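Troubleshooting log. The previous run stalled partway through. Resubmitting the same two chains, unchanged.
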Amino acid sequence: MTTDASTTISNSEILKVTGLSAAYGEAKVLFDIDVSVKPGQIVACVGRNGAGKTSLLRSIAGFLNPTAGSVVADARNLVGMKPYDIAKFGVKYVPQDKKVFSDLTVRENLELASYATNDHNWDRVLEFFPKLKQHMDRKAGFMSGGERQMLMIGRATLGSPKVLLIDEPTEGLAPGIVTHLRNVFKELAKMTALLIVEQNLPLVCAIADRVYAIKDGRVVAEVSDKDAITFDACEQYL
Amino acid sequence: MIDTQLLISGVIFGLSLGSIYFLLAIGLSLCFGLMRIISLDQLLYYSFGAYMAYTVGLATGSFWFGVAAGTVVAGLISFIVERLIFRRIYERDPTFSMITSFGLLIGGIGVIKFFWGVVPRPVEVPTVIQVDVFGTAVPVYRLIVIGFAIVVYVGIWLFLHRTIVGKAIRAAIENVEHVEGLGINVSRLFTITFVIAGALSGLAGGLHAPLIMVDPMMGLETMAFVFMIVIIGGLGSIKGTLISALIVGQVVSVGSIIYAPMAQMAPFVMMLLVLLVRPTGLYGSPLYKR
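Second attempt completed without errors. Output:
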């Protein structure tokens, strides 16, 4: 299952997933997945509920142990590493549940991310999400869904991650916040690579440089030409 | 009509008993809140704390040195147990940890019997001074025990709310996976929490020793009350554990003045009533299976 990272990764790829398979106990959920992300790219995974998109992100982040294949980031094989080591290495996972630490204030939520990454400069986070400034001493549990998502993404950007794995970031959010997040993702891509699981096809078409369609735990299509990433091209996989 | 002096005496007795229960239950509550384990071995550290207070106190002539030794030894044992045993079973169902820790408790009682025998041992009260509280003579030692519980509560509150490790523990009580996702070594948080829990259980045993006869079964005898306190207060809640421990202490103490058989029965009735109204306990939040 493990491979020599330095020989398999191309210099132009910050994340390369090769032949990845994974299972929850006896139930296999991913089959021989190949995905790659280049620095500064926004790559989207689309597919129906239960297709295996979240399992893919969780496997990369170390929360689901692959049964086969390799996950190489910045010339290092992540398979077998603990989730916190993967996060420390710079591959951060933002889950879709929008569960911030509700008993902690916004400031404390950010403090934890700073503690983990030793990055105490919040300027960029607050530049992306100025709304967080107003709620610094408010318990995160009292924030709206959109604000929670901002906090989760903001936390993940501390420490200058190499890759951000973001799971369904716009699910259930108001159109205005979706627009805001779209602009943030474009800005974020200037400093990190993004692998986003998303069913909001207009957003995918607006920001993605490459799209993988996932069905039944397999990559069934890949669109790497930005001009070919259209609503119609993606919709057939939802 | 209850005699006022008897009532005041009962309330102070109840507060000191509740303080001991709090020190013991806080570890159990934190362990479940963070690691989702039922750590019955805390009752073993409580017994070790008491026996250390007895042995070291006798050897050095200082009860307080014995209490300190009991706290440190309990912390050390819990560190070893966490590293060697619990680390391997965190991922399993809580029932597994309950059975494992019960085995540790029973095995530990055997060790205590081997070294100290089965005969209950008396521990001398460090001070016999009494003070007047509303016309009632109250032993100073009981007030000292209450003082310890207050200091520990404030200390734990400050640790959890003012230090970054404490904040990480609070966050992990909510969601371990998200804390790991930030890049924080959760396993280290588990060890810190377990050692704090063990040390506080040892402290509880040491402080309780002069108020009871120290015997090998003292941990087992306290188990039902400690469980009850954790459940009434709400798993993982420090505030809930304190309030619940103080309530149970009063119910046992004052209840025995009103009607003696009530002292053992009333806390269970109270637990049933609380669970009927609030199934998560007084300050517990809904728990999700990890």
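Takeaways: The radius of gyration of chain A is 17 Å. Residues 5-235 of chain A form a domain with the Rossmann fold fold (CATH 3.40.50.300).
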